[in-house]
Amino acid sequence: MNIEKSNIANLPTKYGKFKIRAYKQDNQEHLAIMSENFENIESPYVRIHSECLTGDTLGSLKCDCQNQLDLALKFISKEGGLVIYHRQEGRNIGLLNKVNAYALQDQGRNTIEANLELGFGEDDRDYSVVDEIFKDLGLKKIKLITNNPEKIAYVESLGVEIVERIPAITKINVHNEHYVNTKKEKMGHMF
Ligand SMILES: Nc1nc2c(ncn2[C@@H]2O[C@H](COP(=O)(O)OP(=O)(O)OP(=O)(O)O)[C@@H](O)[C@H]2O)c(=O)[nH]1
Ligand SMILES: [Zn+2]
C-alpha cells in the first residue's frame, strides 16, 4: 500500500493548540490531529472521525457528526490524544452518492436502504489507513471514543489494545432521531 505523509505542523484552533500530519493513500487524504502533549501519553484518547461535509462543515441536523467532532476535539485538547479525520465521506460512497442517498431518504428510505438501493453496501468504509497512522505514531494502547462496534473490532484486529471505550453520544434532535435509531437497531451501535 502506497502511503505518503506530510511533515508535522502546528494548528492553533478554538479548541486549543494541536499538531497535524496529513496522509495520502491512493486519492484520499486524511489527517491526524494530535494534542500538544500527545507523545508523552501512554494510552492516548483516540477518535476515528469519518468525514461528513454536510454535518461537520454545514451543521446538518440529519446526523450527529458535527456534535461528535466537536466533542472529540474538546475532549482531546483537554485530556490528550488524537483525532483521525478519516476522509471517507458518506461511509465511503462519496458526496454525490450520499446526496442521492439523502434524496431517497426524503422519500422514506432509511440510511441503510438508501445505500443498498444505490448499489452500495450499508457501510463501505476501509480503515487500512488507520493501521498506517497508528504504526507511524507508535500507538499500541488507546482509549477509543466511539459507539461503533466495527471500529472497535478493526482496532483490536491490529493488535492495538483498547484500555477503555468512551461513548460518542451527543444530543438527539427531531431530524437525526431516525438516523441514530437505525444505527442502534440495524448497525449495532452502542447508544
Ligand atoms: N451513505 C450515507 N452516509 C452517511 C449518512 N449519514 C451519515 N453518513 C456518513 O456516515 C459517516 C459517519 O458514520 P456514523 O455511522 O454516523 O458513525 P460512526 O463513525 O460509524 O460511529 P461513531 O464512531 O460511533 O461515531 C460519515 O462518513 C458520514 O458522512 C447517510 O445517510 N448515508
Ligand atoms: Zn454526518
From TrEMBL:
Q: Where is the active site?
A: 123, 125
Cofactor mode of binding and number, as noted? Binds 1 zinc ion per subunit.
Cellular component GO terms held in the UniProt record = cytosol
Task: Report the EC code(s) recorded for this entry.
Answer: 3.5.4.25
> What pathway or pathways are given for this protein in its record?
Cofactor biosynthesis; riboflavin biosynthesis; 5-amino-6-(D-ribitylamino)uracil from GTP: step 1/4
Report whether Lyase shows up as a keyword of the record.
Answer: no
Kindly indicate whether the keyword Cell membrane belongs to this entry.
Answer: no
Q: Can you provide one Gene Ontology molecular function annotated for this UniProt record?
A: zinc ion binding
Residues annotated as binding GTP are 47-51, 68, 89-91, 111, 146, 151
Cofactor list: Zn(2+)
| Pfam families named in the record | GTP_cyclohydro2
Q: Which GO annotations describe the biological process of this protein?
A: riboflavin biosynthetic process
Enumerate the residues binding Zn(2+): 52, 63, 65
Give the GTP cyclohydrolase II domain ranges.
Answer: 8-167
User: What InterPro entries would the database entry show?
Assistant: GTP_cyclohydro_II, RibA, RibA-like_sf
Q: Which reaction does it catalyse?
A: GTP + 4 H2O = 2,5-diamino-6-hydroxy-4-(5-phosphoribosylamino)-pyrimidine + formate + 2 phosphate + 3 H(+)
Q: What keywords were assigned to this record? A: GTP-binding, Hydrolase, Metal-binding, Nucleotide-binding, Riboflavin biosynthesis, Zinc
Q: What function does the entry list?
A: Catalyzes the conversion of GTP to 2,5-diamino-6-ribosylamino-4(3H)-pyrimidinone 5'-phosphate (DARP), formate and pyrophosphate.
Family the entry assigns: Belongs to the GTP cyclohydrolase II family.
The entry's protein name is GTP cyclohydrolase-2
Native source species: Halarcobacter bivalviorum
